[in-house]
């Protein structure tokens, strides 16, 4: 919760305690933590009966530790976890105005696959991202 509060405001997707507890207990979620909670990433596996996919659900890096490769390391660990679970597609969402995150995701091979008007509230537009995981077992 402390990392969440350092990274997100109440109108920026801040998780509530119950959400974190539910994700921690889920068999289809994995958390990756860097250092002494300098960063955390949550990956999910989703399915609908016809297909399975991964989702980069959350990435938070403490503002005091940004620009050090922590976000990249966390996402790469999550993508490796998805590939180990035979997932070959990862989805994500990002705020349209979050240029550092968009650059990070693009450098990791995510492509912008569509707009999400007002996804983060009125005027808070988002982008849908997708990445094919090459070499998934």
Tally of individual helices: 4
CATH topology: Aminopeptidase
Just give the CATH class: Alpha Beta
From the helix content, strand content and strand pairing, which structural class follows? alpha+beta
Domain module tally: 1
Strand content: 25-35%
CATH architecture: 3-Layer(aba) Sandwich
Radius of gyration over all CA atoms, rounded: 14 Å
Largest sheet: 6 strands, mixed
Give helix and strand order, one letter per element, not per position. HHEEEHEHEE
- Portion in helices: 25-40%
Please tally the β strands and state the result: 6
CATH homologous superfamily label: Gcn5-related N-acetyltransferase (GNAT)
Task: Please give the order of strands in the largest beta sheet.
Answer: 1-2-3-4-6-5
Average per-residue pLDDT, rounded, comes to 92
List keywords for this structure.
single chain; 137 residues; alpha+beta; Aminopeptidase; six-stranded mixed sheet; 4 helices; 6 strands; 33% strand; globular
Task: Explain what this protein looks like in three dimensions.
The mean pLDDT is 92. The chain contains 4 helices and 6 strands, in the order H-H-E-E-E-H-E-H-E-E. It has helices at residues 2-7, 17-25, 70-84, 99-107, and strands at 29-34, 39-47, 52-61, 89-95, 111-116, 126-132. The protein starts with a helix and ends in a 5-residue tail after the last strand. It has a single domain, classed as Gcn5-related N-acetyltransferase (GNAT) (Aminopeptidase). Strands 1-2-3-4-6-5 form a 6-stranded mixed beta sheet, with helices on both faces. It is an alpha+beta fold and 137 residues long.
